[in-house]
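Hmm, what's this shape?
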Amino acid sequence: MLNTLEREGYQTAIISSNSKEVIKQVLRRHRIRTISQILSSSAIFGKDQLIRKFLKEHRLKPSEVVYVGDEQRDIVACKSAGIKVIWVSWGYDAKELIQSQNPDFLVDSPGEILDIVFEQLK
């Protein structure tokens, strides 16, 4: 999925409460080289601020970005920052918890992410 996005001209970044070093280790372990930037904050509920910083630094409109997350707080942060969020079912929080948060999209496979990105960010 990440390779397809890169081939199609999309850039991917990671915005996380995990440490940059842990994220880099995981990327190296899985030989993922398509991530253009990693933004990290130890503040568990500070993702909306990181998202706003990312948008400002890259001069992006909220409509030009879609966030892929696996936690309830990802949905809350995206709504606060005004960007669309794709929630993935194979992540941290249970689908039953997430449905009441009304993410823009719920997906069960990486292929569904591609479909949404290609439809939403033409």
In short: The chain is about 45% helix and 20% strand. The radius of gyration is 14 Å. Residues 2-120 form a domain with the Rossmann fold fold (CATH 3.40.50.1000).
